[in-house]
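The freezer alarm interrupted the setup, so I double-checked each line after restarting. Inputs confirmed:
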Amino acid sequence: MCTGSSVSDASFGPNVKILNSNSQIVELQTIIRDKNTSRSDFKFYADRLIRLVIEESLNQLPYSDCSVETPTGAIYDGLKYRSGNCGVSIVRSGEAMEQGLRDCCRSIRIGKILVESDADTHVAKVVYARFPDDIARRQVLLMYPIMSTGNTVLQAVNVLKEHGVPEDCIILSNLFCTPIAAKTVVGAFPQMKILTSELHPVAPNHFGQKYFGTD
Amino acid sequence: MCTGSSVSDASFGPNVKILNSNSQIVELQTIIRDKNTSRSDFKFYADRLIRLVIEESLNQLPYSDCSVETPTGAIYDGLKYRSGNCGVSIVRSGEAMEQGLRDCCRSIRIGKILVESDADTHVAKVVYARFPDDIARRQVLLMYPIMSTGNTVLQAVNVLKEHGVPEDCIILSNLFCTPIAAKTVVGAFPQMKILTSELHPVAPNHFGQKYFGTD
Amino acid sequence: MCTGSSVSDASFGPNVKILNSNSQIVELQTIIRDKNTSRSDFKFYADRLIRLVIEESLNQLPYSDCSVETPTGAIYDGLKYRSGNCGVSIVRSGEAMEQGLRDCCRSIRIGKILVESDADTHVAKVVYARFPDDIARRQVLLMYPIMSTGNTVLQAVNVLKEHGVPEDCIILSNLFCTPIAAKTVVGAFPQMKILTSELHPVAPNHFGQKYFGTD
Amino acid sequence: MCTGSSVSDASFGPNVKILNSNSQIVELQTIIRDKNTSRSDFKFYADRLIRLVIEESLNQLPYSDCSVETPTGAIYDGLKYRSGNCGVSIVRSGEAMEQGLRDCCRSIRIGKILVESDADTHVAKVVYARFPDDIARRQVLLMYPIMSTGNTVLQAVNVLKEHGVPEDCIILSNLFCTPIAAKTVVGAFPQMKILTSELHPVAPNHFGQKYFGTD
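Predicted 3D structure, all chains:
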């Protein structure tokens, strides 16, 4: 049976899915991890990996059967999105995924959350949030490329839940995830789906700085 | 074992590979087949399916192991392309796939073949060809989105072979393929790889006209 | 008085217009002419200059007055395109301008002409042409980036006129033009508009090869 | 004499420059102001106007003479950027201009400022700022598409000055500006350059909501 192009990691339960790895995805991960990659190449190849993760994330959304008529008058039995999706990026690195989402869903609404950690106490705090006002009735693609500890995502999901979004309507789109972050996030939100391209003990923490050039 | 995100169709041998189907790919195919899709939407969603086919085609190219150093000084064992690829589009519909190829391979060289069928005899004839001059030493991604009979592709591959490209260095990137076309092309060129998103008796023949708006 | 962002060159009459030069346009021209520019940079900066020329070409098309209502209920007196435009690229180098045209006019129809010169007689001959079937009723943006002699353009315009396009409905979009080519084309088609970014005795003849990487 | 494609508005002094208006720019402004424009069209045409404003903003940056060698061995006297620029967007609407900046300057560094107004006191306050660490030595393209009062921009410029950026190294890139905002900002920062596409008493305040779909 062919169930799609992502696989679940048994150790984290059915809701942590990993993009089906292949040579070119490993190549993209290699380029992104390489400290000698130029900023221009880094951005180009990160954008490719982002698009692949976004495409697979969209595949987790609900679809309905539909029939369409082709130019020759034949009927084709296909699928269509169920409407009511939106994207939410976690500032700053999550914003790198916004263009990839737009490349796939032309006019999808995109909200934003800014979480900052207190330099002394290390407590993460939401300082800014802007959503479509009917977000409680939408499927939410939460975008955050690098998860090291999971703390920022915990805060962001809490804000979504405070705005009425059910946990099982959230799909976290991620590029690189540590096992400890996966464990933390799944433990806190067992109904949320997590899609990543790699589970690896070391996350490339230079991602945001290198992508945007603010180091 | 997970060998990638495409599957082989046993009836046509190991070299005909089909993109691993999932809900969103069926959705894209539905939109492209629907006669009521606007040109603007048609182009947008065709571009998405093209990118997915191109990404999977690139996955058929040869890769080598490599080790890179990460910003923290760790060594990461990854993969890199073996150099020496190029794209060749079959005019006109194949040109729709050029941008998708550039979105994935920033400065890849792209050649072009124009094949026309004689209105009376239906014989396909090459009227124009332009290639990188070292094409005989490259892997060639041959781009042609719709295969109904396979006749145009036969002519195009013959031209590539006349220019010294070995058959097993050609990967045909295709969106929609009829079983009869697959059989014709595999019969003529058993060493060439064919990658498509769908094998279906009816190919959406309005593709080129709708994509470029020249009907 | 400065009524737009292009100026006419008096020596060639009112229909040869040059993009209003400024520092960044000169910079783009410098990068394109520099033999040490990498292919990746060449394509990136050529695309920028192409977009600027396309934007200014669109400005030559006819517009009509229109009034729209703003979200606050106020009336704003503006302009809108008169419908009925299309693009036609001259293969191969003209195709480099197709994406720029699409970046400005999302679903504009784009036709294509292939002109080849006989290697012995140097006579230019049309070997392929594909147009929207109602092209005679459209304004045509003819795309050809480099004009050295003007011979190819002469053939292409003749084909358009054979298809019923009035000469004064054609706007030639060009990046680099020699004075001799401007003189030839204006002499043959005094009603056609020509828009270029530079009149200079030396045209960068490596443009197509470097843009597409087929040398 | 017309020396470029922007003009100064005499009433605000030499540092307020307006994009040279033409039919297509008025068309873009019309589409953006029209309440009946779809979100998909709104974003497409806003992106076009943004690119034109960005292109003209880049033209305000300093350039140096340079000579390059062409493929035929000739020397071409041209121009090149003086290095050391960066972009800074004011969240949220300014972020709409980031892609346009990247479309013109492939790997330019982009910082970000978030200013929020107190709901009671209407005092604008900076809640987040992230810059390239050597920003004091760079020319800064400050991006903010709609200026109604100028208060947000005042705060943002103050933050840039606190980080050591000289006032005359800031170019404000803007789409729509009210005369009162122009007066306020010029009064506070007479050395800063302001580039806009239109001075008009009514700014399209729905811009950010419509562009991102968060209303």
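Quick read of the result. Residues 39-58 of chain D form the longest helix (20 residues).
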